[in-house]
Fold this sequence. Notes:
This protein is an alpha/beta fold. The protein has three domains: 4-49 and 148-319, Rossmann fold (3-Layer(aba) Sandwich), CATH 3.40.50; 52-142, Rossmann fold (3-Layer(aba) Sandwich), CATH 3.40.50.1100; 323-399, ACT domain (Alpha-Beta Plaits, 2-Layer Sandwich), CATH 3.30.70.260. It has helices spanning 4-14, 27-33, 51-61, 78-90, 104-112, 124-135, 148-164, 179-191, 207-214, 237-246, 255-269, 275-285, 308-321, 338-348, 381-393, and strands at 23-25, 36-41, 71-74, 94-98, 116-119, 140-142, 170-174, 196-202, 249-253, 296-301, 325-333, 352-359, 369-377, 398-399. The strands form three sheets. A six-stranded mixed beta sheet has the order 1-2-10-7-8-9, with helices on both faces. The chain has a four-stranded parallel beta sheet with strand order 5-4-3-6, sandwiched between helices. Strand 3 (71-74), helix 4 and strand 4 form a beta-alpha-beta unit. It is globular and about 80 Å long.
Amino acid sequence: MLTIDAIREADRRIRDFVLRTPMVFSPALSQMFAGEIHLKMENLQKTGSFKIRGALNTIKAQADRLPPLGVIAASAGNHAQGVALAARQAGVPATILMPQGSSISKQEATRNYGGQVILQGRTVSETIAAARQLAEEGRLFIHPFDDPLIIAGQGTVALEILADLPDVGTILVPVGGGGFIAGIALAAKQLSSAVNIIGVEAATCPSASTALTQRKVTSVPGQASIADGINVRQIGQIPFEIIREQVDDIVCVDEDSIAAAVLLLMERKKIVAEGSGAAPLAAIMSGAVELPRGHKTVLLISGGNLDSPLLGRIISRGLAQSGRLMRVGVELPDVPGALSRLLARVADRNANVLHIYHNRSCRDLPINITVVELELETRGESHVAEVMQDLRDAGYALRPC
């Protein structure tokens, strides 16, 4: 069984190579949730996530017996980059298997850190199986989460949290394969018996909560998620044993809540967090976790490796979810001046036009009618309702779009 001594030893191994990431108090979030909210900024870590900690600890702990062919790992992104950089610092080759369809930017980042990238497998599970086979050729396989050295390395984050905020009440941690929360829980519980550790996973892939319910590690179907870093269909056996003993609760958050959390972090704190990094905030925004008034809480912003195209989609989804982006179709006579009168009406209600599309191909439309589809920036749900009602009062026929 892992102990805090192993985590402290990991800290001694890696402290000169990783960043001691800041913990930032957020007045805005604290006021919003009537507590004391702190953000542990692992998105500012080398490679953009906490994963470098476990990878570096694993490689340095076995530095005297690394094979000539080096190390091999399987990952959709963050673990890949962590292993590649850790191997480069150790001066050994790194072969990284990534699932087909992995983010191109994460592939390129992994190559830039010195990893040889091979695309193989449709899922992380298939990619891990392929990596294990290649390891038999003479490479050290570094599992992304089901390994004591990985867990100990990730647990060093908790040492920093408790040093900065000894009386923390709750730590919210993203959960994918379980290695991160296992390390956090082991260290935090041994340093403070009063701290609550709550895991947050994507509702599209609830592998941790399913395992706890069924009392065994279980593979779940899983769906695509904007929180791809925690979209793991089966947690590790070692993390599972730790989680069921040390973790107080596991909650799930849906895609809309994660998107809204990413957007809130950007707007209020100027923080770019990937979906998994925003999941802890999503948990309190959605009500999945309710914090006592004045409670000291740490949200683990686990990573910031967010693709630009995905960021654009998340922002749009977050704006729509919060009522700040509305889409509506309006039937107009296809004559000069009809559009300008519609836009003037929208402007009078202080809604900002982002996109306009004329749809003349609807089968049920008379030949002299067009549908103008509008995308508008609004202040919130009440403003959306105001704009919709004003258009109806003006006699416009509205269509969903």
